[in-house]
Amino acid sequence: MHLDQAQQGIDQAVAKLGDTSLSEQTIVEHLHPLFSRVLSRNKRTNEIYLSNHSLGRPLDMVSDVVQTALDGWYDEIDGVWGYWLEARDRYRAQIARALRWPDENAVVPKSSAAQGLRAVLNALPSTCLKIVSTRCEFDSIDFVLKSYAHKGRAEMRWVEPDANDMLQAQDIIDSIDESTDLVVVSMVCFVTGQRVEQIERIIERAHACDAMVVLDAYHAFGVLPIDFGSLGADFIIAGNYKYTRGGAGSCFLAIHPRHLSPEGGVPPTDALFPIDTGWFAKQDPFAYQRNEMPAFAAGGDAWLEATPPALTYFQALPGLMLTNAIGVDRLRAYSLEQQKALVDALAQHQVSPRLFDQRGAYILIETPDGHEATKRLKEVGVNSDARPLPRSGSWVIRLCPDLLNTRAELEDAANRVSSVLQRI
Ligand SMILES: Cc1ncc(COP(=O)(O)O)c(C=O)c1O
Predict the structure, then answer these.
(1) What number does the ligand 1 atom closest to the CA of 186 have?
(2) Region class of 380: left (phi > 0), else alpha (psi between -120 and 50), else beta
(3) pLDDT confidence of residue 67
(4) Using CB atoms within 10 A as the burial measure, which of 121, 179, 333, 401 is most buried?
């Protein structure tokens, strides 16, 4: 399936939803047919999938779209590169649209969020960065920062969550001072699902101290409306593995245009410029000219790297197209309705989830043993996961409904969850 056909199929299905808020009836009628493969698996296995905050479920067309990209390789050999690069540009454009940013060149594909973070760390002029981050960052980000600190490339100031495992914006703000080079913080914390409040104030404080900000938007991208321009963060890292249904390896780094050079060229040595680089970041790479000094491409292309992994764009595009066609505002409203439906259904079984007012796309249930709980839930056909809270270390099960979960399924899930929790 060609990308134009994929876009057309998605647009036609979404048009049938109308312009109003999403309802289960219209979703089942018009969107579920796009997911017949994963939905038929539900029937086969009797499993209720509530790990949508982890690996998002793919549209049927993903395999056809990837197949066409591969067929091009067989049929046209190197002639397929035009189509592969078109997919990369569409990928960048879809992400820019989801960030409400008009310049798709400000979005650079990366294979992981960690890769995006490392590109920023290596691009900053200081050789030992003073970094403020929190104990609530995802393992990958936490590990990268600790590795840099261990090598003497960073000095870390870690912000602890409060006694309830909640991050307080003021604690982050108070940790930033004139010595800070960089602040790395999640928009939504990966364990608790807490939406970090007053992100704008954190960014303002960092900028007032001449520090830059990397926002990890992994649990916000496709969940909460994000406006890259008005946020003003210097960088956003995120990926499509979860809510935008793009599978593994399809991540990105967005760079605020104030850090991009419209003309490109050789940057001053003490400027911000990437060294995680390759020939696709060169000015006019296909001219095969070599200069003694590195002359970077204009705009965000300066942050591209080497020969790109083209197939991941095809894998990720249908999910991104669907997210943008529906619109994150509508998805968010529907997600909150579904979370409420799940909470109400659990309450009927005397299960009280831990709920934050400001949260992302999932709810939490406390449990004494996360490994045991998720194993037992799997046995009764509920696919979920659990993580230890960052401060207390107690376990929470994470349950995330999405467009493919019906209310009947959520009621069934609540029943199954309560039967398991009574036995732990
Ligand atoms: C907040 C957050 N950041 C980043 C990631 C993924 O990081 P990486 O792409 O480096 O594996 C995840 C994955 O769950 C996450 O929850």
Answers:
(1) 1
(2) alpha
(3) 98
(4) 401
